[in-house]
Hints:
Helix 3 (95-105) runs parallel beside helix 5 (137-149). The protein contains 8 helices and 10 strands. Helices cover 34% and strands 26% of the residues. The protein has helices spanning 41-48, 71-77, 95-105, 114-120, 137-149, 167-184, 195-201, 229-240; strands at 2-12, 15-25, 30-34, 56-61, 64-65, 78-81, 155-159, 187-191, 204-209, 212-218.
Amino acid sequence: MLRLENISKSYRADHQVLTNINLNVAAGEIVGLVGESGSGKSTLAKVIMQLESADKGTVFFQNQQIAKKQRHAFYKDCQIIFQNASNALNPMWTVKELLREPLQHHSKVPDTHYDEMLDMVKLSKDILYALPSELSGGEKQRINLLRSILVEPKLLVCDEIVSSLDRLTQREIIDLLLKLNKEKNMAILFISHDLKAVSYLCQRIYVMKTGKMVDECYKEQDGFHFSDSYAKRLFQAMKMA
């Protein structure tokens, strides 16, 4: 479904952020992407979503290179959720207005039963007329998740979406992602520095270091086994954190 070939990106001549990145996510697959802060994970997510242009390399979605004239359809089929939930929500809009916006943008009639929509992410209908400033961090991220899945994407890119949440809310969001994957066959690229969350959620993990992909590993019966020495140390450090 998603395939990256030799993606490189720099911001200055002396600041190479991504170097020859290759990655793929199959339909219905949950793939993890881990690495230390500054390893290039978020920049790669922006390149995938066409929010940043790669210096070289190609992004393929459903076996086609993404063209500018096709981006509206692409953004329906491929949605992203960012780490900072507040920045993704218009502070002047109520929750109801925030939920109507993606439906209107993608030409779907916004007559969905809001009770059912909110129930999907374990929120009460009482929240419909609240502003983002009145919501907790967990509630804001649930709204962002709901906004993304309302248009029924084929791929969801999650960029550190649980890192600022408490452990209980993290687990609830992750369990919801698993449910969406199972019930809707939604592919997920889960970007995180939390190996515990990634190990629980994902069947395959990529590891990045200073803008390069250094390892890829599949989940086995007794867990993940990395071949790269850095990936092994990172995995151990994250497990102990």
